[in-house]
Write the structure tokens for this entry.
Amino acid sequence: MLKVNPHYEKLPGSYLFAEIARRVKEYGQEHPDAQLIRLGIGDVTRPLAPAVVEAMEKAAREMGRAETFRGYGPDYGYDFLIQAILDNDYQGLGIQADEVFVSDGAKCDVANVQELFSDDAVVAVTDPVYPVYVDSNAMAGRAGSYAQDRWDRLCYLPCTAENGFVPPLPDRPVDVIYLCYPNNPTGTVLTKEQLKPFVDYAKANGAIIVYDAAYKAFITSGAPRSIYEVEGAKDVAIECCSYSKTAGFTGTRCGFMVIPHGVKGIGGQGQPVELNAMWKRRMGSKFNGVSYPIQRAAEAVYSKDGWAQCMENIRYYLRNAQVIREGLEKAGYTVFGGVDAPYIWMKTPEGMGSWDFFDLLLNRYHVVGTPGAGFGPCGEGYLRLTAFNTLEKTQEAVERIVHG
Ligand code: MLT
């Protein structure tokens, strides 16, 4: 009989957001009259921008005419979208067209990129962390064994209120460091000066950085929108970006990954190997590209109207974030994030466990959050709220939490 991948057996429970969805569904079935407000998973609620829809419709019509029909697209993305990415996301940063790979979203990219690492590569993650980095490495056997909320082969970089949520450098040699800024789940950002030591560490130790910039559209301060703003990063960093949160593509699916030619690992004969070439090889074998109408839709995000409409939505969500932050702070809660990000990281009251607080919010106030402990050991004692619901529901949720 088939021997299954033994590493799956080590995974604790289900994927965090699947577990929350299960609990919320169960609660909803038992309490059909409860008016639940969902501030849990970071799923957008604003509709697609009109300019994006128009481009998608036009491209769909092209697909219906013999003269303009297209079959398989390029594995790495259409030139028109790659050029728009270079002109808008990477102007002046020296990224080349063949260093950009269009994909169906950042989640898949950050989960799949670990296929390029050796089985015994040592991985560092911030704690708390977006669970996909951990789960994907655990499934590949790179995280070791799981006991007492920790994987024994992962190097955790604790991000706490005490260190201002600035991760320390790894205290032992690692090969890969996953960073996500603006951060999911804490909603905090790092300055260029705070990122530079990670680039220097990677250079000095032959490590690489996987930089998840999915929330960069929310930056209102001077924080960098790309790791490539940091000197030297093109030699050590891969960057993942997404239209999910920038342009409401959570259900539409499109993102991209940048792998500069300078990012290298060591091959079997001790020779340097470009991760860019490896990813091209992988994409050729495992991917047939994102559909033409969706890539046209993504291109339209960068049009004058498209960008203005998308940024209007971002401002809407940032206003929600402000409502949550200020409302909870006024009521005496300690909160972080929510200025450069759609996430608010709130301290649970009176040291309550984060799953207990999750249950309390669900049962008493019918508000769904995400327990901090689901993001790692340092998330215990915190709960994450998202700013992606409507303004009215966000105000109502804060009102319920604050006044009961
Ligand atoms: C989250 O809630 O952390 C995100 O929505 C998850 C994701 O983008 O996959």
User: Anything to note?
Assistant: The chain has twelve helices and 17 strands. The pocket of D-malate is lined by residues 41-43, 107, 130, 184 (CB under 6 Å). The radius of gyration is 21 Å.
